[in-house]
Amino acid sequence: MRPVTLMLTPVLPSPTGGGSHMRAAALLDCLRSRGPVIVVHAECWGPTPDVADRSWVRERAAAMIVIQPDRLSALPAIVGDALRAAGLGQSIDAVFVFRQVVAPIGLRCGASFRPRVMLLDLDDDENDLAPMLAALRRTRGETDVAEAIAAMTRRHTVARAMIMPRFDRVFLSNPHDVRALRERYPQASITLLPNVLPPVTRAAGVARDPLTILFLGTLNYLPNEDGVGHFIRDILPLIRSRSPHVRLRVVGSGLPERPALLVADGVDVVGAVPDVGPEFARAGQLVVPLRAGSGTRIKILEAFRHGTPVVSTTIGVAGLGVSDGDQALVADAPEAFAERCLRLVTHEHERDRLSARAAEWVEQHHSIGTMLERVEAALDHAEGRSDGRA
Asked: Is the pTM of this model over 0.85?
């Protein structure tokens, strides 16, 4: 019998629905290449966005368990029932935990099933993001919320120090996060696992419009809300003062805390779409004007795959290793950001040059084979367990 993997995740693995969903989907594809996978979707982060494809998991997993946080204590028994119902015996070879929030229940399942290997994908360093979120809250006058974020971060740090050494391998998507956490937690085995994106089918019959700028992101995620608000308020007017027919299309699920920030001349709010392919095909460029963030942005990899050039802040491209003028255009000051957007509006050759370089780069560094190789290596060559693990 092929080895069984138990995958625990707070988001539904899906090729649509946002960056975390897409990373979880890529991980599931890697894990199922070696044997059956039981997927546990613990809804710790709330309901699944409508644009996420629920059927995608069911077609790939040997069993799928959706569970509410208040029932997690019963999960080992539920997983045992799922094993028997799927005819997979009683043993689990590997437990793969996606994100720290479900690590405690992952460890409990590890204690029950005694797998050969325990793996944890943190994706990003949430503690690196927390000070940025607190700063954004303070600029809004939300001091109490900022203090609550700081308190939560302290608790998160304590928990992480206890959790990480109990896994055979810990993954992160950003090289900076890998270096920082290796220094902070030398007792843990930490490895870079880049975000990846398989080749896409580019939308046919959609004409690219150099006057259309695309913003893509979950709009109730504060860094995205701040980023698109910053672009609409501080950058778009500079662009339209020189090219008045330019329009911004805002695509993504969720509703920002301050919806009024999306109301402006030249802004079209599209909302969630089931397929972002036509949006990338239509847009002359994708903008990533983030001023806070962690991990790496899968939306940039999507744009590269779809042949859509990218203008981003330094934070937006953090961890990807791209440089200004090579795979993307990068600027932080509003005037410089607007200048780079206008360059793509007016210069077709520049759009084509960046698109070609980016497509070659993403295939070389962020293909699904990159993730598969590193996940398989961790599964096949797991380090010895620490004495403290259950």
From this structure: yes
